[in-house]
């Protein structure tokens, strides 16, 4: 079995060389290749990775022209891997290299995709809350099994990779593509360490962008939810009109409340604006997709 270690690299000049070395040490019995994708790093990651590729025949290096985001970088790595199994791992040592073998052994049992999960995560509170929210959103929108944690540290069989990379849109979500293709999924518990250097690159803006990506590109359930909400509002409005008519008949000289009417108008105007914003997101993403916005553009490659 040939294993392709796919690593999206962002500001990892201090860790990437040690990570490659540690993985080679842990998987000595396997044929290996490393696919490093520099996602527009602001430090010296590009030169470090380029030197790695020159000195190590196992390393394939691609540098992107700007920062496209983790999932775009992973898709680029999957396009350029040649192994039987792709193992996606972060560049910061929070996923210990010695845990890769557990994912590989689970793949060898016949599963298409093996996710990792953690007894305790070493992220900060904001990142953990964001992960929990993303997990619940994915369960609703993508019909993800509730007991499955969508970790970025995972192993994917080659046949599934070949299906995933057929997606050509500019807003990939790797886990969403996996759930479209297969339900042969498994999970193994692994350790989770503190970052060895730097800080998390997941800002609030990036997390919101990821959630919108899941909402808009991989499900129409938000539109259905607004349709059901609209039906509910119509039913409640009819009942309210009936109530007002009856109340007016019983109390013909009593004036209706201006404040309640304005509150109702304001509330439903807000709902309409939210729905228009949601529709604009769908149309905007569709426009960018049909306009052939690239998933990535390559600045240089070394392999």
UniProtKB/TrEMBL annotation:
Q: Which UniProt keywords apply?
A: Cell membrane, Glycosyltransferase, Lipopolysaccharide biosynthesis, Membrane, Transferase, Transmembrane, Transmembrane helix
Looking up Pfam families in the UniProt record yields: Glycos_transf_2
Q: Which GO terms describe its biological process?
A: lipopolysaccharide biosynthetic process
A GO cellular component entry from the record: plasma membrane
The residues covered by the Glycosyltransferase 2-like domain are: 4-161
Give one GO term, molecular function aspect: undecaprenyl-phosphate 4-deoxy-4-formamido-L-arabinose transferase activity
- Could you tell me which CDD domains the record lists for this protein? DPM1_like_bac
In Swiss-Prot or TrEMBL terms, this protein is called Glycosyl transferase, family 2
Q: What organism does this protein naturally occur in?
A: Chlorobium ferrooxidans DSM 13031
Q: What is the lineage of its organism?
A: Bacteria, Pseudomonadati, Chlorobiota, Chlorobiia, Chlorobiales
């Amino acid at each position: 079995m040939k294993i392709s270690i796919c690593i999206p690299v962002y500001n990892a000049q201090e860790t990437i060389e040690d990570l490659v070395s540690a993985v080679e040490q842990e998987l000595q019995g396997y044929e290996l290749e490393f696919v490093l994708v520099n996602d527009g790093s602001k430090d010296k990651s590009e030169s470090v990775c380029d030197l790695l590729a020159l000195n190590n025949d196992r390393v394939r290096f691609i540098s992107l022209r700007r920062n496209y985001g983790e999932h775009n970088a992973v898709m680029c790595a999957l396009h350029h891997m040649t192994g039987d199994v792709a193992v996606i791992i972060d560049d910061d040592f929070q996923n210990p290299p010695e845990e890769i073998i557990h994912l590989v052994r689970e793949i060898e049992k016949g599963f298409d995709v093996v996710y990792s999960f953690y007894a305790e995560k070493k992220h900060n509170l904001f990142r953990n809350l964001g992960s929990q929210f993303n997990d619940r959103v994915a369960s609703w929108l993508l019909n993800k099994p509730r007991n499955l944690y969508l970790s970025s540290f995972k192993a994917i069989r080659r046949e599934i990779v070949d299906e995933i990379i057929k997606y050509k849109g500019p807003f990939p979500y790797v886990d969403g593509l996996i759930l479209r293709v297969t339900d042969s999924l498994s999970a193994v518990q692994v350790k989770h360490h503190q970052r060895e250097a730097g800080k998390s690159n997941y800002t609030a803006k990036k997390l919101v962008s990821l959630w919108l990506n899941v909402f808009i590109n991989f499900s129409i359930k938000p539109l259905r939810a607004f349709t059901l909400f609209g039906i509910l509002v119509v039913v409640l409005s009819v009942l309210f009109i009936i109530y007002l008519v009856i109340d007016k008949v019983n109390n013909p000289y009593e004036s209706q409340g201006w404040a309640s009417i304005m509150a109702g108008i304001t509330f439903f105007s807000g709902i309409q604006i939210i729905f228009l914003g949601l529709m604009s997101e769908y149309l905007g993403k569709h426009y960018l997709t049909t306009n052939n916005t690239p998933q990535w553009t390559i600045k240089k490659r070394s392999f």
